[in-house]
Amino acid sequence: MVNINKKLIGVYHLEIINDFLNSINGLTPYFSLVAAYTATVQIPGVSGAGITSELRELTATADVEILALGKAVCLQEGVPSNPSGAPGPSIITHAAFKLIPEMTYLPIDVGLKIMPAVKSIVKLEGASQAKAVSSGQALENEAQAQKLFYSGWKLGVKLGSECANSGHYLIIAETIPGGTTTALGLLLALGINAEELVSSSMPGNAHHLKLEAVKQGFQALGKEKGAFAKTPLAGVAALGDTMQPAVAGMAMGASIHCPVMLGGGTQMAAVVALAAALVKNGEVDRTRIKPENIALVTTRWVSEDATADLSGLGAAIETKFGPFPVCYMSANLDFSQSKYPGMRQYELGFVKEGVGAGAAALAAMLTKNLDPDEFLPYIERSYEQLCL
Amino acid sequence: MVNINKKLIGVYHLEIINDFLNSINGLTPYFSLVAAYTATVQIPGVSGAGITSELRELTATADVEILALGKAVCLQEGVPSNPSGAPGPSIITHAAFKLIPEMTYLPIDVGLKIMPAVKSIVKLEGASQAKAVSSGQALENEAQAQKLFYSGWKLGVKLGSECANSGHYLIIAETIPGGTTTALGLLLALGINAEELVSSSMPGNAHHLKLEAVKQGFQALGKEKGAFAKTPLAGVAALGDTMQPAVAGMAMGASIHCPVMLGGGTQMAAVVALAAALVKNGEVDRTRIKPENIALVTTRWVSEDATADLSGLGAAIETKFGPFPVCYMSANLDFSQSKYPGMRQYELGFVKEGVGAGAAALAAMLTKNLDPDEFLPYIERSYEQLCL
After folding, report:
1. What is the pLDDT of residue B77?
2. What is the mean pLDDT of residues B206-226?
3. CB contact under 8 A, B12 and A14
4. What is the pLDDT, as a whole number, of residue B182?
């Protein structure tokens, strides 16, 4: 029997999570990666997703390529990395794909700046690069957010139905550097007290800089926190990014048919907040979807991050937009025993999550019944192949 | 079969917690309550444990009486309550005792201001009222903290051995109003970045006031955060309270023989930090104790508190003083459907924890196989008996 306990460390809404884990038992993961660019990533100090400003423009493109091609052809070498030297989270997701060759990969473009050399990529209607959250006009308009939501929904229904008919569950992951700042933007737009709760790819977090960027956005709009609680997609258009409406739509649409893992930390919590707000406001009929089929899966580095608070964030979302469970589990990854100093940087608070690393790791550990220490060498091998 | 999942909501270190839950399966809880006074509670604004300054002096005494006598003879009526009108957490613990008549009750005095009318109370060597944390000299001296630790240890070994021989596990709970501020004091003394992580009996928390009180203490000492990382019991004497060394000793001593639930939120996290620091510094031999026999049990209100972060706090403790697991689980209590407005105040962030409410609730739900909604009427009955 698979020992799930060693593979997970933090769990919130234990009952729902246990039912969820039972529901995916024996199923094969289907991995979708929603990729986009937001100019928010260029605001100094908010992101560690890429070593330089130029490279941050390539991060999402490179992530898409790595999982399809086994290397980032858009980069000269390696994977998108943190200024600390820590390799990006794609090494974890890559290792999961190596372990589960039967895992389907579907990259989805919702606004990349640079096209990846991957033919199979799907472009969602409404996709475009987002402007910085500080502009207060991140997307073109609310109609674009709606377009992304409904094209996401349609794709989600289709994928969910396919998964249900073929013994799969769906993972929806993201790569959108700067995304914890747009997560903060959306959460504040919706009126969630998330100021100190979102996570970060840097050890000290950068709450102040992120908040400053979002405040500039509110100022440009002449609006206050919570102004979009009743118009969530307008909030996305003002202070969010293109990934958020697309994934909210996909997750809700797919939940009708199959279990859905949202692969990510506080960025995915913002997506769940958007979903809950859309239900609360009657824009989505609660009886059409199955919220209990949606579970956020992240890494231990996010769930134990002392500069963020995923359960606090979940509770704040539930209080404002519930009943809608915000449940999560975290894969028990630990790089302290890695032979590579770059990987050990994770234990100092660098990187933490991205490219669905937590969900992919859990999927791999469950599928192959590996404990975290047994999975570690596979990640090291991916690191060697991709970076050394 | 008991459905544990419904009874818990948040879990950290899932594997250890699952082993722990298996280890107490079929055992009877033995409930000890460590009670004390600290003048810290009188610092304006830091505590909601009592409606007035005079009543806060009686809170711990009243809690001890309620569990022994079914009423607080030191009060004119009712239970110690929050200024909001929310009844104190003793109504939850009282309900657990009603449900489990075979649960032994052992009150332990480590420095009460007013003696309870309870004959069976045990006074630990070294017990005395503590001064405010802002004095920088909360206890008389380090020797007092050591005395409390070793008398706690001796009692823990004795109780643990008795529990093991009679089919019990041990719950160690606390009632020490003002205790989240002394928790912050001890954690900062040990060098844990706990500034924004501790919980509170008030909705907005009072991080600033608590931190101010602790900073005054450091100033009076002419010392800085982390000054006591290598002399943890001196840190307790400077900036902690009498409950902390007593419970750290009890828990470690008892862990040799039986499973131990630490009933409390961030106050008990500070106790675990103290235990881990004592092990790290070689004052306690790690091979003598069984840290995996110690689990923190609290309420949903603490684990989802957006103004605190129990997993972040645990991770910070592990990083500094590990390997020493700081694992927790939270009882899935929810008063939103209570017929009493005072109880519904819990959902707004008042009270949250105390008198081992989370551990007692979990013990009751496990022993009687009640789900949280089935346990709620028993708490309401206790509220009626004690307060109406």
Report:
1. 87
2. 96
3. no
4. 98
**B144 to chain A, minimum CA–CA distance in Å?**
32
CB B250 within 8 A of CB B34: yes
Beta-carbon separation of B305 and A315 below 8 A: yes
Residues 6+ apart with CB under 8 A from B163: B30, B169, B170, B254, B257, B258
- According to the model, what pLDDT value does residue B84 have? 87
Q: Mutate one of A1, A8, A12, A365 to test the B interface: name it (highest B CB count within 10 A).
A: A12
Find, among A68, A171, A172, the residue nearest to A120 by Cα: A68
**CB–CB contact A5 B14 (8 Å):** yes
Q: CA–CA separation, B304 vs B331, rounded Å?
A: 11
Select from A5, A308, A316 the Cβ nearest to the Cβ of B18.
A5
Which residue has tokens 């289709």?
A158
- Mean pLDDT, rounded, for B209-231: 97
Q: Which residue of A has its CA nearest to B371?
A: A15
Give A208→chain B minimum CA distance, Å.
Answer: 15
Interface of B with A (CB under 8 A): 3-6, 8-15, 18-19, 193, 196-197, 303-316, 332
DSSP state of A87: B
Number of residues written out for chain B: 388
Residues of A near B (Cβ–Cβ under 8 Å) read: 3-6, 8-15, 18-19, 193, 196-197, 303-316, 332
- In chain B the domains, ranked by start, together with CATH numbers, are 4-372 (3.40.50.10210)
The predicted structure's pLDDT at residue A229: 98
Chain B residues in contact with A15 (beta carbon < 8 A): 3, 5-6, 8-9, 332
Comparing alpha-carbon positions, the chain B residue that sits nearest to A323 is B336
Distances (CA, A) of A298 to A168, A196, B16: 20, 19, 19
Q: Tell me which DSSP letter residue A143 carries.
A: H
Element (H, E) at A365: helix A357-367
Closest to A173 (Cα-Cα) out of A273, A87, A330, A63 = A63
In chain A, which residues have pLDDT < 70? Answer: 1
Q: What is the mean pLDDT of residues B193-202?
A: 90
Complex prediction ipTM = 0.89
Residues in chain A: 388
Determine the Cα–Cα distance for residues B216 and B129; give it in Å rounded to an integer: 20
DSSP result, A5-50: HHHEEEEESHHHHHHHHHHHTTPEEEEEEEE--BGGGGSTTS--SS
Please report which helix (H) or strand (E) contains residue A297, including its range: strand A294-299
Q: Report pLDDT digits (tens) over A7-41.
A: 999 999 999 999 999 999 999 999 999 999 999 99
Measured in angstroms, the CA of A197 and the nearest CA of chain B are apart by: 8
How many helices and strands, by DSSP H and E, does chain A display? Answer: 15, 8
pLDDT reported for residue A2: 77
> With contacts defined as CB-CB under 8 Å, which chain B residues touch A308?
309, 312
Q: Minimal CA–CA distance to B127: which of B153, B103, B102, B108?
A: B108
